[in-house]
Amino acid sequence: MRRAPIPSLAACLCALALLATACGGADRSAGPPVDGATFTYVISADPGNLDPHQTVLSVTNDFNTLTYDTLVAYDADNEMVSGIAGSWEADATSATFTLRPDVVCDDGTPMTASVVQANFDYLKDPANASPLIGTTLPHRDFTTTADDAAGTVTVTMARPYGFLLEAVATLPIVCPAGLADRELLARGSAGTGPFTLTEAVAGDHYTLVRREGYTWGPGGASTDAAGFPDRVVVRIVDNEATAANLLLAGDVNAAAITGVDQERLRVRGMFESSTDRITGQLWFNHKQGHPGSDPAVRRALTLALDLHELRMVMTSGLGSAPTAMAVLEPRGCTGDTVAGTLPAQDVEAARRALDEAGWTVGADGTRSRDGTPLTLRLLYKSGFDDLSAGMELLARRWQENLAVVVESQAMTDTGIIEATFGGDAWDVANLPLNAYLPVTISPFATGALPPEGSNYTAIDNPLYTDLSAQAQVTAGEAGCELWNRAEAALFSAFDVVPIAQAPRPVFGSGARFGSRGGAVIPTSITMPAG
């Protein structure tokens, strides 16, 4: 087990990644670089509110790497490299960063230590209710000081935090215009990143233009590099088959394709860059009145499934068993927290568990208790044929093996978030959380329900709560040991059921790039002559 320097969920795509190229055909992404081109990039859902301090959605955080920088970044070897800051030093209680003197906002305003401090002051203010408190930073009990003359900013925690450097270093930094007008950030940008947002058409496309004179990217990456695009157009396409067709036609330059359409792209010899992500992860609604509030029901539902069978279907045979909650590479903690925590399929034991819990099969062939049918409302992401097949299999196994009623609904990312965080008309959701740090998972499994907190499933696992609280203030190997035990406690209680992780390749047509977590790294884009 090791612990490596890792970015937070909110800014995890700033590092350069190794490129993986498919073989077997002509590669439109090969050739000498060409300047002045447009890079067209497909994402599967609208990013919504673009304020980087008011979101934990992966699709939004990925988009914001185009327009915002962080204090430090990561290279292909997962080593920290310069970003807005040229140097830094940190321990578990304090982190100090010395800013580069040449960093400029997209409106020409210089980036100063006081501006960075104002970003952390915004997070600290409870009136702003930033979801980054509890996911990136563990709490608001910290102080920030700035010295503009020296160009230094220091964040000091009231008590130790094992991932302080990673959390503070990778917060997206908003410029003064955005700090003064948060409404500007909702559909615009105010950052120091390599691009500036010029057009936002919700649900359709976003247009961004290259920053002139940008030289402070990860490790000194520059927009003056040969082949760097003048424009980026981000298109919203929620169906993978459609996205693959656009790639094959040469109408777009990049799209993440996770399902069966991967093979027809590889047959054409298309460029790809790939990293692993969680694709299958069941969360139960633990609120009173829902079947998932009973541990016996959660156990029975899990026992009724052949997780390997389900994994193979929902990933087109490309997936593997997850080893942890936070699996994005490079991981903050290694080790297998899943092995040995979930039982093998045992349909008879599942049926007995439901019988003992009072859910019995009636004359109509379905289970009920006190006249109430055992009905499960299942939510999952739309637009992915293999995932849909997997969720249909899941529903069928529960119906056939346990005689329960399953009502399935495919929804967009935004729709699932609204349904689970803002409503109660659901019982089970395949809503994978992808993170580098185990601490990122904690607020989704502890604490208050939305809107005060992020524990949308109402999980109450005292062992996880205790171990994760200890882990937050413990650095190094000892901290990872605690995090691993905490995650295992979630699985043993059937609070969360990990099903699958799989490579998330981003395919390229007429472009080359690196990827991290299934998204393009902006400063890695190169447009070759076609």
Question: Would you mind describing this structure in some detail?
Answer:
By secondary structure, the chain is an alpha+beta fold. It folds into 2 domains: 9-270 and 509-524, D-Maltodextrin-Binding Protein, domain 2 (3-Layer(aba) Sandwich), CATH 3.40.190.10; 276-502, Dipeptide-binding Protein, domain 3 (Roll), CATH 3.10.105.10. It is built from 14 helices and 22 strands. Strands 1, 2, 9, 10, 11, 12, 13, 17, 18, 19 and 20 form an 11-stranded mixed β-sheet that branches. Strands 5-6-8-7 form a 4-stranded antiparallel β-sheet. Strands 14-15-16 form a 3-stranded antiparallel β-sheet.
- According to DSSP, the number of beta strands is 22
The CATH architecture term of the largest domain is 3-Layer(aba) Sandwich
Alpha-beta classification:
alpha+beta
Q: What is the average of the pLDDT values? A: 91
Radius of gyration: 23 Å
Give me the CATH superfamily of the largest domain.
Periplasmic binding protein-like II
Largest sheet entry: 11 strands, mixed
| 3D shape | globular
Strand content: 15-25%
Number of domains: 2
What is the level 1 CATH name of the largest domain? Alpha Beta
Summed up, the helix count is 14
The CATH topology of the largest domain comes to D-Maltodextrin-Binding Protein, domain 2
Provide the helix percentage. 25-40%
Distance between the termini: 45 Å
- Catalogue the unreliable spans: 1-27
